[in-house]
Design a protein that fits this description.
Elements: E1 10-13, E2 19-35, E3 39-46, E4 49-56, E5 69-74, E6 80-83, H1 95-101
Antiparallel strand pairs: 1-6, 2-3, 2-5, 3-4
């Protein structure tokens, strides 16, 4: 609002690799748990929300079997916020950062 922006609905997003299990203030019921060698790919339900987690097997003390209720957490600094209408990242989206982070494609002579 400080720049005249109107209030908007937002969605919080977290990368699956940034979730830790075993402790935390959030909880979910594991619906799918797939061992992939060095990590588990987990699909869980937290209330009405689907949660996807990629959890390293090294040092894992939590039970991540299907049907298990698990506590989980994410570091607040890793949460991204998105405008629901446009899909823009509200933390990183501005003209300068878009220009600075735009993908560069190699151009070939025709």
């Amino acid at each position: 609002k400080s720049k005249g922006a109107k209030p908007t609905a937002i969605t919080a997003g977290v990368r699956p690799q940034h979730i830790t299990v075993g402790s935390g203030k959030l909880s979910a019921k594991i619906e799918v748990s797939e061992m992939m060698g060095t990590e588990y790919n987990i699909h869980a339900k937290s209330g009405d929300d689907d949660v996807v987690m990629v959890i390293p097997t090294v040092g894992l003390d939590a039970d991540v079997s299907m049907g298990t209720n698990v506590k989980f957490d994410v570091a607040p600094e890793l949460i991204q916020l998105f405008d629901e209408e446009s899909g823009n990242n509200l933390i990183w989206y501005d003209a300068d950062s878009v220009a600075a982070n735009a993908p560069v494609c190699k151009q070939y002579d025709s």
